[in-house]
């Protein structure tokens, strides 16, 4: 029998009795008397304690014979932040399955990517979750199928194969088993939009509070015009997906983000949704973050000021790494100009531009073989870009979703021109690691220094923070496992004070990226 420390019966039942939406996505409730499974916040009458079972994932509830509740839609609950907190094999497997890996490469490919045999991987997943990779992928196919049924006018045959099913019969049987309705029933209850040009509109749920304005501001301050744009409260950008490029337009609201996807191939829907959720940090649990950080005398006031602050994610960790390198020792405007030149020179034009978004970001192999001398970068920067591109191309460094974060950080630091700050920054934003602390970052140390003294940063003061990197890292251990959020709050605090003069740091291996850190903080 699988075990999970989150599934303490008393704690879970208290959440169910109070209909606490904070636990939606963390666990699911199977009700034996009705044969359905629900979110903890389901508005239906609370069942008796002895009539319920608890499951860590929806797939486990489905495998136990429960169907999805029609009232609370547990299949559409926010994702669990536990897989980002965990960097072990189960956590990495869950991220890859969520990204559609099983449908693309099968269970053998998934196991190979993780460095395990199929048997070992299945045993690990069953021990922790109660189900193996096939059941987890089946649950995801069912949710993808429901989105396509309810939001498009695609034929059911097209929906079945787009969602990853191998036959119409398998599609029909799964939909009936999971939702207790036929595909026709699901469609008849919703007004389907035309599937013109592969455009699909859906809602991406997340937990409140959610500071979407801060996310949009961050993206607007670093946008590369051909690749992304922030317009009228929405973030639009290109996604490089397994079956071709796509564009996504994301409009954040308090409890959900309106997502418009223009897909070249609808088979890419699960991967596109997973990518958008990472960009938005949509699976974060703000209450868990707040409960852990609010008692701290440094972070408590910052948490109270910005309770919904998220870590801005990246559509692709490799792209983020290239952009961080390009931004070394130049202004924000200069970095965007250089990146724009790279995208225009080596990226592929979109067949149908979406607003101001016109090109894809070039793949590593294109950068590795390119002559970069005409883009206005230093020779050292060109070398770092080529070395990074070659390492990503030959597989010596993996920045794919589900990659081993520690191995990725160590691999990046072995490259010329990339130091600890850069590697950690890529892990924080590109690999969605919630527990990265940038103790060497001058802005972080200035904020800690000022807040520890109980006074705002002093304009015109000595630019070097009095707190050392070692002391900052030691202090940051108290903020595990949410140190990435601590960094964002400290950056936001310094940005608000506007009292961080430009300076160099003493770490020669990573000085350029420290400059990028200062720009990011602003």
CATH superfamily of the largest domain: Hypothetical protein, domain 2
Please write the CATH class name of the largest domain. Answer: Mainly Alpha
Query: What radius of gyration results from the CA coordinates?
Result: 23 Å
Mean pLDDT: 88
How would you describe this protein?
With 522 residues, this protein is α+β, with helices and mostly antiparallel strands. It has 4 domains: 5-72, DNA Methylphosphotriester Repair Domain; 82-151 and 154-188, Homeodomain-like (Arc Repressor Mutant, subunit A), CATH 1.10.10.60; 317-430, Endonuclease III, domain 1 (Orthogonal Bundle); 442-521, no CATH class. The protein is built from 24 helices and 11 strands. Strands 5-9-8-7-6 form a 5-stranded antiparallel beta sheet. A 4-stranded mixed beta sheet has the order 3-1-2-4. Strands 10-11 form a two-stranded antiparallel sheet. Strand 10 (349-354) and strand 11 (357-359) form a beta hairpin. Helix 21 (442-453) crosses helix 23. The longest helix has 19 residues, at 133-151. The chain starts with 8 loop residues before the first helix and ends with a helix. Residues 455-462 and 499-522 have low confidence and may be disordered.
Quick description:
Helices cover 47% and strands 11% of the residues.
How does the SSE layout of this entry go?
Blueprint: H1 9-17, E1 28-31, E2 36-38, E3 52-55, H2 58-63, E4 67-68, H3 82-85, H4 89-98, H5 101-114, H6 118-129, H7 133-151, H8 156-162, H9 168-179, H10 183-188, E5 199-205, H11 212-220, E6 228-231, E7 234-241, E8 244-252, E9 256-263, H12 269-280, H13 286-293, H14 300-305, H15 317-326, H16 332-346, E10 349-354, E11 357-359, H17 364-368, H18 379-394, H19 405-413, H20 420-430, H21 442-453, H22 469-476, H23 483-497, H24 511-521
Parallel strand pairs: 2-4
Antiparallel strand pairs: 1-2, 1-3, 5-9, 6-7, 7-8, 8-9, 10-11
């Amino acid at each position: 029998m699988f075990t999970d420390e989150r599934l303490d019966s008393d704690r879970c039942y208290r959440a169910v009795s109070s209909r606490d939406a904070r636990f939606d996505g963390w666990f699911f409730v199977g009700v034996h008397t009705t044969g359905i499974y629900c979110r903890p916040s389901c508005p239906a009458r609370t069942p008796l304690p002895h009539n319920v079972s608890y499951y860590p994932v929806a797939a486990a509830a489905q495998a136990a014979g429960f169907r999805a509740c029609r009232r609370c839609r547990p299949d559409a609950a926010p994702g669990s932040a536990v897989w980002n907190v965990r960097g072990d094999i189960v956590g990495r497997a869950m991220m890859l399955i969520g990204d559609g890996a099983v449908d693309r490469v099968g269970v053998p490919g998934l196991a190979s990517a993780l460095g395990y045999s199929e048997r070992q991987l299945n045993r690990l997943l069953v021990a922790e979750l109660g189900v193996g990779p096939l059941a987890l992928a089946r649950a995801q196919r069912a949710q993808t199928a429901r989105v396509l049924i309810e939001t498009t006018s695609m034929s059911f045959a097209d929906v079945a194969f787009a969602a990853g099913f191998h036959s119409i019969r398998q599609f029909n049987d799964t939909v009936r088993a999971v939702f207790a309705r036929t595909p026709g029933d699901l469609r008849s209850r919703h007004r389907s939009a035309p599937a013109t040009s592969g455009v699909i509109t859906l809602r991406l749920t997340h937990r409140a509070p959610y500071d979407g304005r801060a996310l949009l501001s961050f993206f607007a301050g670093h946008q590369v015009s051909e690749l992304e744009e922030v317009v009228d409260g929405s973030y639009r950008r290109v996604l490089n997906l397994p079956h071709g490029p796509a564009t996504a337009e994301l409009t954040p609201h308090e409890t959900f983000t309106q997502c418009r996807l223009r897909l070249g191939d609808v088979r890419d829907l699960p991967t596109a949704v997973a990518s958008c959720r990472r960009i938005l940090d949509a699976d974060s649990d703000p209450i868990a973050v707040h409960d852990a950080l609010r008692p701290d005398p440094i972070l408590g006031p910052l948490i109270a000021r910005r309770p919904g602050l998220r870590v801005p994610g990246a559509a692709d960790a490799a792209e983020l790494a290239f952009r961080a390198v390009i931004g070394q020792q130049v202004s924000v405007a200069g970095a965007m100009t250089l990146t724009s030149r790279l995208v225009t020179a080596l990226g592929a034009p979109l067949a149908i531009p979406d607003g101001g978004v016109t090109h894809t970001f070039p793949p590593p192999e294109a950068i590795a073989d390119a002559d970069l001398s005409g883009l206005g970068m230093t020779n050292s920067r060109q070398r770092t870009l080529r070395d990074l591109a070659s390492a990503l191309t030959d597989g010596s460094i993996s920045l794919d979703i589900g990659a081993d974060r520690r191995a990725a950080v160590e691999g990046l630091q072995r490259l010329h021109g990339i130091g600890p700050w850069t590697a950690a920054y890529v892990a924080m934003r590109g690999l969605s690691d919630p527990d990265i602390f940038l103790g060497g970052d001058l802005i972080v140390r200035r904020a800690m220094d000022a807040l520890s003294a109980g006074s705002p940063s002093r304009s015109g003061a000595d630019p070097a923070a009095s707190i050392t990197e070692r002391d900052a890292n030691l202090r940051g251990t108290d903020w595990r496992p949410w140190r990435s959020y601590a960094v964002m709050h400290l950056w936001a605090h310094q940005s608000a004070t506007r009292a961080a003069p430009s300076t160099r740091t003493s770490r020669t291996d990573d000085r350029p990226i420290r400059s990028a850190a200062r720009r990011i903080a602003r």
